Amino acid sequence: MTQPFPPPNFIPAASAVEGIEVYMPAPPEKEEHRETVDFTCPRCGAGTAYSAADGGLTCANCDYYEPPQKAVVGKGAERFEFTVQTVERAARGWGEARKEMQCQSCGAYTSIPPDTLTHTCPFCASNKVIQRQAPQDVLRPRFLIPFKIEAEACYDIAREWLGSSWMTPGPLRQLAQVAQFTGVYLPFWTFDAVTKAKWQAEVGHTKTERYYSDGKWKTRTKTVWKWESGHVQLGLNDILIEGTGRLSAILLGRIKGYNLHHLAPYEPKYLAGFQAQTYDVPLETAWESARHQMRESTRQACRDQASTSKIRNFSMELDFDEEHWRYILLPLYIAVYTYEGKPYQVMVNGQTGAISGQRPVDWFKVWLAVAGLVAPGLTIGIVGAILLLFGGLGLPILVVGFILLIIGLIVGFNLVRQAQAMDDV
To answer: Which residues contact 27 (CB under 8 A, 6 or more apart)?
Structure first.
């Protein structure tokens, strides 16, 4: 019996030889998208919202409550390999009808519930925004960590944090009640890989030897360099890379301690009542950042294998294997407050409650403290100098004053650097 040509499920492919036809297996069909869902109360028809307290859905109109469906998968969450097919087959869209808000000031794209009337960007507090129907062509997150911290708790956390430094203005704590905290799911990429490296380097060993010179035996040390080599294999898991460039990487890094053991399969219900940002850092760019971190970790592991820390002419051959990725959402509260006409951003980890942000510095307090640190040494030094001019015992006093002045300058310099770091973030 004659077999059909081409065989079933084969499609034409590009041929490198003219006149020769080439066929390839047809790629698997894309995963079917789930229908979009609307979160409306089955009792009164009003919109429902996700509850961070226990993960259920609550109607603010009639108090209808739908208990949570616990489905935590943690670090056992499915991973994708780095192939074109896996990216093409990945589900798209949010899985529910949502609107998208584009900020004309900072450029952020934020997904919002369809019944939200807000016209303020959560990242910069600008009112210059455009709303439209959210596109359904972006990758759909596969997993997320639900909110565990209630929005009301953020105000107490922020008030305590704003007043925790003596270098900030006194009235700053009161602004915690003025700021509006917005719950936003931020996009993140996670990466896993196994790195395999071969390395070689000259490693220095310190050796003490005796030698005879000028009629005496003396000792000296010298470094003896020897070539060493080795192999390193590292399994690197859950390298977390931000999927957005709209937030300060420094501030975000201070609160990034998310526990990925609490990852749950993505369900549109988790977004009810919350905003979610669309990723603006593509997969390929994020993977390059993750590879850089993996490369540096492997490099350090190779150097740690050397018999001493004195190394030169280091070289390494590195291969990546078993490369996987996930696209996930992580919970964050964002608030923007204004002090003396300047906006400041505050972030609270929606899982742990860790806080980070920008705080203005009261420079009058800082310079007053620096003056207080320098004054004792300067005063004692002047007294010592006067006594020295009149033939008294001013030299010891002058030395003490000089030492105190140097100590005061060092401590004061560190205070100014600390204040600048707070003011410039």
So the answer is: 85, 88
pLDDT digit string, tens, across residues 55-96: 566 666 666 666 555 555 555 555 666 665 566 656 677 776
Averaged over 191-217, what is the pLDDT? 90
pLDDT the model gives residue 33: 39
Residues 283 and 417 in one domain: no
Mean pLDDT across the stretch 202-218? 87
Q: Do the domain assignments include residue 224?
A: no
pLDDT at 52: 58
CB 147 within 8 A of CB 351: yes
- DSSP strand pairing (182-213 vs 275-277): parallel
| Backbone angle region of 397, left / alpha / beta, with phi > 0 → left and psi within -120 to 50 → alpha | alpha
Residues 387 and 331 in one domain: no
Gap between the Cα atoms of 185 and 163, Å rounded:
27
Q: Indicate if 404 and 337 belong to the same structural domain.
A: no
Q: pTM above 0.85?
A: no
pLDDT exceeds cutoff 90 at 147: yes
For residues 273 and 96, give the distance between their C-alpha atoms in angstroms, rounded to a whole number.
13
Q: What is the total count of domains within the chain?
A: 2
> 11: which 2 tokens?
């499609």
